[in-house]
């Protein structure tokens, strides 16, 4: 089981880094305008445009909580669950799929608004993969 955790955690960390920096979706407007925002670009754009509260909420639930969950899973794997990291991991895990749901809602809104055609790009797949790998590793750490 520790071998599986040792395999999942580097994959989760690497996928998370790629997931927040690579473009997540392609938005085509009026057939010739195209945007390919990454999650970091979305947060930065909201902040610059004056939507600081929304930028903070998205950063908190899509970057900070998942990064904390990955870090706590690393600590729990190294300590074998003998530290407080396992209880903190349990608290952070309750928010684990909220980040992917948030991105899916943005994509759904773009597709159904009729103003833009949206398609998925690798950033979203890496982000979802990181979320699933972290959730699986956290579950295995709690069982061990």
Secondary-structure blueprint:
Layout: H1 2-21, E1 25-29, E2 33-35, H2 39-48, H3 52-79, H4 85-93, H5 98-112, E3 117-120, H6 122-143
Antiparallel strand pairs: 1-2, 1-3
Helix pairs in contact: 1-3, 1-6, 2-3, 3-4, 3-5, 3-6, 4-6
- What is the overall pLDDT average? 81
What is the C-alpha radius of gyration, as a whole number of Å? Answer: 17 Å
Instruction: Return the structural class.
Output: mainly alpha
Lateral strand order in the biggest sheet: 2-1-3
Oligomeric organization of the protein chains: single chain
Please describe the biggest sheet, giving its number of strands, its sense, and whether it closes into a barrel: 3 strands, antiparallel
């Amino acid at each position: 089981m520790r071998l599986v955790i040792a395999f999942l955690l580097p994959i989760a960390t690497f996928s998370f880094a790629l997931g927040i920096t690579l473009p997540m979706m392609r938005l085509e407007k009026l057939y010739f305008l195209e945007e390919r925002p990454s999650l970091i670009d979305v947060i930065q754009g909201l902040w610059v445009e004056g939507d600081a509260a929304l930028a903070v909420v998205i950063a908190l639930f899509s970057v900070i909580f998942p990064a904390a969950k990955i870090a706590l899973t690393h600590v729990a794997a190294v300590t074998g669950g003998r530290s407080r990291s396992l209880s903190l991991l349990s608290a952070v895990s309750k928010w684990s799929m909220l980040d992917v749901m948030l991105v899916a809602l943005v994509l759904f809104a773009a597709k159904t608004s009729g103003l833009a055609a949206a398609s998925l790009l690798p950033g979203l797949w890496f982000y979802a993969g990181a979320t699933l790998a972290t959730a699986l590793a956290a579950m295995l750490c709690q069982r061990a």
